[in-house]
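Thread: Newbie trying to understand structure tokens

Hi all, I'm a second-year student working on a class project, and my supervisor (Dr. K.) asked me to get a predicted structure for one chain before our next meeting. I've only ever worked with sequences, so writing a 3D structure as a token string is new to me. If someone could post the tokens and maybe explain what I'm looking at, I'd be very grateful. Here's the chain:
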Amino acid sequence: MPLYQLNQDLPTLSAPMLVAAFDGWIDASGAATAAASQLAGAGETIVTFDGDALFDYRARRPVLDVIDGTLARLEWPQLVIRRARFEARDVLVMVGPEPDYRWRQLGSDVLDLSLRLGVVGWVSLGAIPAAVPHTRSVPVLATASGPDLLHVDEQQGPDGLLRVPGAALSTVELAVSGNGVPAVGFYAQVPHYVGGPYAAASIALLEHLERHLGVPLVLGDLPDEALQQRKRLDEAVASDEDTRRYLARLEEIAGEERVPSGDELASEIERYLREADQGGDEPRPFPEGR
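---
Reply by user tm_fold:
Sure, no problem. This is what the structure looks like when written as tokens:
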């Protein structure tokens, strides 16, 4: 049995692109799923995946609403595909929690869906922690399944081997791209000292996606959120001398305009995983004295 249910009233799609983001791993500060949700907007849900088969409800518990002492409703984690339309282009947005189970079948089922729906390209959206300052534009690393899929000024890399824990998103992308669907990935680098949402990274992802799709995208409230977050970070920096010195060092490194090495990325990712295991939803302080 497939893991998905397809809306039978689906209209004819025009050369749809499939854009995907899962929360959790490779979604630092929730930047990728925030970008995907902004992209999907109020689009129609055309595919629903079987949450009972995909999620561990003790690890990702449904939200229970209790109203006036009465159990009213449960909100279950959901993985869906929604249809958005930009000018004459259809964009299918797959967004939701990273599944706990059946990654291989999910990849096979999404490939089947892609072929049924006539998907012409895949885009993964992600966000990774990195030693970058919040005072500079957000760097975005790119991956591609073949040559000439990226613009010449997009950073593809790093060079050489980068070995990190795998993600469900990558499993699905490999299943799709391995059967001839061109695939790219955009991964925003989020300052590793940011513990909450980081709208600047979501904006950077949408800007890269806009150029890749060739259609204008709407940013909604993200620019205002980015300004407020920047103000709070600036205030935190101004209040501590050690933090100012550390930020100055990050800005110096950023001025070198180089792609981080595989070892550097792996180190930051390992740090991110350790902090997530220790309650990484709490705001992370700046490191001292680096």
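A couple of things are worth pointing out once you decode it. DSSP finds eight helices and eleven strands in the chain. The radius of gyration is 20 Å. Feel free to ask follow-ups in this thread.
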